[in-house]
Design a protein that fits this description.
The complex is a heterodimer of chains A (107) and B (123).
Chain A (H helix, E strand, L loop, with lengths): L3 E4 L2 E4 L5 E7 L7 E6 L6 E5 L3 E2 L7 E6 L2 E6 L8 E7 L6 E2 L3 E5 L1
Parallel strand pairs in A: 2-11
Antiparallel strand pairs in A: 1-3, 3-8, 4-5, 4-9, 5-6, 7-8, 9-10, 9-11
Chain B lengths: L2 E5 L2 E3 L5 E8 L8 E6 L5 E7 L6 E3 L7 E6 L4 E6 L8 E7 L13 E2 L3 E5 L2
Parallel strand pairs in B: 2-11
Antiparallel strand pairs in B: 1-3, 3-8, 4-5, 4-9, 5-6, 7-8, 9-10, 9-11
Chain lengths: 107, 123
């Protein structure tokens, strides 16, 4: 199975900060990488699919880049509603694996 | 409004069975593949199973293969997860999620999620 790692595992940031989260796959997954946001006590929500396509309704401060094994999610200016945990997910293989998550909290 | 609502969770003893349901509304349920994802309390997300729109393709994670069975009834707008031989390691919130296409595969993603139902396996 393809293994996913994320860094950092957690970060503290302030409103207005630029935040970058990295996701790495154990083998090439082309651009088959999705990002989800999960607020505390809530279900995950799709943010970005196929590495860089913003899901409808998601603010443009979220962006994604990458291909192959290395991917990045960037929040250009962190807002109060952005605090939570972010997961990457690969759908290149028939086993869809998630990364361990990156928790973003208030500094 | 598009919505998925899970039900059927609860407390179950090790070795017993439980059946989860997920009802969809606000969209053409039978047009889309569906998935189950679980999350142990305080832990990360784990994909466990997927089913195509007409049930002709299913996949399972190794952790549940042979114990869990995914199915759907499009006439009832419902997705199911039959869970047998449960163990403490199966304790988790179980989410159903919708695929944007009829068949899942490379490049798929989960564009709508339910609120989850908690399964606790304990004696």
């Amino acid at each position: 199975d393809i293994q996913m790692t994320q860094s950092p595992s957690s970060l503290s940031a302030s409103v207005g900060d630029r935040v970058t989260i990295t996701c790495r796959a154990s083998q090439s997954i082309s651009v088959f990488l999705n990002w989800y946001q999960q607020r505390p006590g809530k279900a995950p929500k799709l943010l970005i699919y196929t590495a860089s396509t913003l899901e409808s309704g998601v603010p443009s401060r979220f962006s994604g880049v990458g291909s192959g094994t290395d991917f990045t999610l960037t929040i250009s200016s962190l807002q109060p509603e952005d605090f939570g945990t972010y997961y990457c997910q690969q759908t290149s293989s028939k086993v869809f694996t998630f990364g361990p998550g990156t928790k973003v909290d208030l500094k | 409004e598009m919505q998925l609502v899970e039900s059927g969770g609860g407390l179950v003893q090790p070795g017993r069975s439980l059946r989860l349901s997920c009802e969809g509304s606000g969209f053409s349920f039978d047009d889309y593949a569906l998935h189950w994802v679980r999350q142990a309390p305080g832990k990360g997300l784990e994909w466990i199973s997927s089913i195509s729109w007409k049930s002709d393709r299913v996949e399972y994670a190794d952790s549940v293969k042979g114990r869990f069975t995914i199915s759907r009834d499009n006439a009832k707008n419902s997705l199911y997860l039959q869970m047998d031989s449960l163990s403490a390691e199966d304790t988790a919130f179980y989410y159903c999620a919708k695929d944007p296409l009829s068949y899942f595969g490379s490049g798929t993603y989960f564009d709508l999620w339910g609120q989850g139902t908690l399964v606790t396996v304990s004696s």
